[in-house]
Amino acid sequence: MLLFNIMKPAYKSVLLTIPFLVLFFVIRNLPVEPCDFLHEETYNAEGEIDYCGSDDNGFVDLSIRKWPMNAEFKAIDSLKINQPCKFEINIEQADGSPLTSKDVALSHTQKIHLLAVNESLDDYQHIHPVADGLFDGVWHFEITPKLAGKYSLFLDFIPAKSPRRVLISSSFNVSGEEDFTRVEKETLAYSFGDINFQLEKQISQTKEGQIDLTLLAKSKSGDTVGFYPVMGAFAHLVAFDQNAVGFAHLHPLEDLRPVKLSEAYTGSLTFGFSAPKPGIYRLWAQVKTSLDEETFIPFDIRV
């Protein structure tokens, strides 16, 4: 104690600062668990709040909203209908440094979520790019387009250094003849295999401007079918506008988190959706009604 008292003020400051620095770096380097950001506030390049998780029910228009990162997409193979095509993505952070796997936090059990949807909104795929083992900033994914025409791509991830959600968009074209008409009516029921999926909608009683959507699955005999975990939740909904300029990624409003992959939730799940303007929106539900089968179910709702 006497030695500390007779030390020069500058040395005292250094000694007092060291424990705080050590604590800072220990906390900074703690592993990020899946779904840690489910209810966190995040900010985009304009300083506006975006939410990741069950509160993140707003539609993000990526034709007018930009984030300070660059991503270049490169098709390695030919883009043809029903043929797998490998892609390479080069991602640079705001400071120009490459985005590596260590720079990305786990969100819904994955590093990066890639949402791909074609112009008619009939082919939706959810893919998880993987970081290259040798080259920093390079990520790989593979997609098999089912239809011709333009596909919109949306990257969704959270940098590890701060829980700031980043969204980046791009597109590619598949050769072939396009032939589709815009959806003009609601479709709130869909059958897949021996399961009937139903989506009910109503004006939210708790949040102005929000629509509450209730998802339920039943067998042909009328029994309620359970939902198994998909990416840290019992179901996911993604909403696209008819021009595919953006999306909303929705999660159940119920405070339910799977403890293990074999756990099933039997009952309805509610999602909140805030649309930017009136119109028809295509919703894709990503669910698992068995341990080994993941299913994408389409609905169309009128707002």
Nutshell version of this structure?
By secondary structure, the protein is mainly beta.
Question: Would you mind describing this structure in some detail?
Answer:
- Helices cover 8% and strands 41% of the residues.
- The chain is mainly β and 303 residues long.
- Strands 3-17-16-20-21 form a five-stranded antiparallel sheet, with no helix packed on it. It has a four-stranded antiparallel sheet with strand order 4-5-9-8, with no helix packed on it. A four-stranded antiparallel sheet has the order 7-6-10-11, with no helix packed on it.
- A hairpin with a 5-residue loop joins strand 6 and strand 7.
- The longest helix has 20 residues, at 9-28.
- The termini are far apart.
- Mean pLDDT is 83; it is low at 20-45 and 48-55.
List the keywords.
mainly beta, 41% strand, 21 strands, 2 helices
Q: How many strand elements?
A: 21
Strand order of the largest sheet: 3-17-16-20-21
Beta percentage is 35-45%
The major sheet is characterized as: 5 strands, antiparallel
Distance N to C terminus: 71 Å
Stretches with pLDDT under 50, minimum 5 residues:
20-45, 48-55
SSE series: HHEEEEEEEEEEEEEEEEEEEEE
**Helical element count?**
2
